[in-house]
Automatic annotation (TrEMBL):
This is Haloacid Dehalogenase Superfamily Class (Subfamily) IIA/haloacid dehalogenase superfamily, subfamily IA, variant 1 with third motif having Dx(3-4)D or Dx(3-4)E. Signal peptide: none annotated. Residues 285-327 form the GCN5-related N-acetyltransferase-like domain. One of its GO terms (molecular function) is phosphatase activity. InterPro entries: GNAT-like (IPR041065), HAD-like_sf (IPR036412), HAD-SF_hydro_IIA (IPR006357), HAD_sf (IPR023214). One of its GO terms (cellular component) is cytoplasm. Pfam families: GNAT_like, Hydrolase_6, Hydrolase_like.
Amino acid sequence: MSGGLLACEGPLIDAFDLALVDLDGVAYAGHQPIEHAADGLSAARSAGVRLVFVTNNASREPEDVAGQLSELDIPATADDVMTAAQAAAALLRTRLDVGATVLVIGGAGLRTAVTAAGLTIVDSADDAPDAVVQGFSPEVGWKDLAEAAFAVQRGAWFVASNRDLSIPQARGIAPGNGSLVAAVVAATGVEPESAGKPAPTMYQMAVDRVGGNRTLVIGDRLDTDLAGARAGGFPGLHVLTGVNSGRDAVLADASMRPHFIGRDLRALTQAHAAPRHREDGSWECGGATARVDGGRLRLDHGDASDPVDAVRAACGAVWAARDDGVRIDEDSVPEFDVR
């Protein structure tokens, strides 16, 4: 699979039979719908694409997540949801036997997953837990973080459901589990093992659960969703409805680069052009052209009818230059208006 953007001559939904879909920033923002998400996912299902919603949020039960999706006109059941809580519980079982004790710092979804894995939940560092597992929950406070720190200092294995520093909400970007985990790391000096994205564990668990020969990962975050796609060998679609922008994609490290870029989930029903390297050294996509000159990006939107084509052309130029060792003046890369 190429290290750059890929081309798809027809709609993406004709090229894949399984889509692993992130939630926050892709299907919804907090409890609010994201425009065109329901229609795009409905079109995918109508084309025979199986959907599994894969989220780094470990606070909620799969049934609750499915209920919220259904309320937003994205019908789903608990079997359609794969959470970081389930991945964290699976990671714990790689070293812990049935009945081992775990201090759970997080919400109901994490507690349920740990119990379902045959592990015993304790509520205090004084219970000498074998492990501490930490997942996002809005209710996690200082006392919880202190308890985790006490247990880790005493030798408990430290596991995090994910290391996302932020999480999209309807009102903006809020601190995520990684920000809370950082407090425990600061107190103990111990870095946790992480079960969530960008580790590809959840993606492979989802494929194993439902099957699928041609899998597409869909996300809004480069450092988790798309990095996980690269790590797992899956093509990844970056939708520009959440945390990371088109400019972020242009400047992404090689390990985080998407394979496709779309404004929103309507991208599933569209063909995708890949930037083409021209003889004059520029990169062209859909009428937009880009080149790197003296470390600066030179961009011409030309007659591109799709504003995302300018992002794609810029990705071609900047990624190739960086791969050749050119230092890019990041101030020369604009914010892209893809409305």
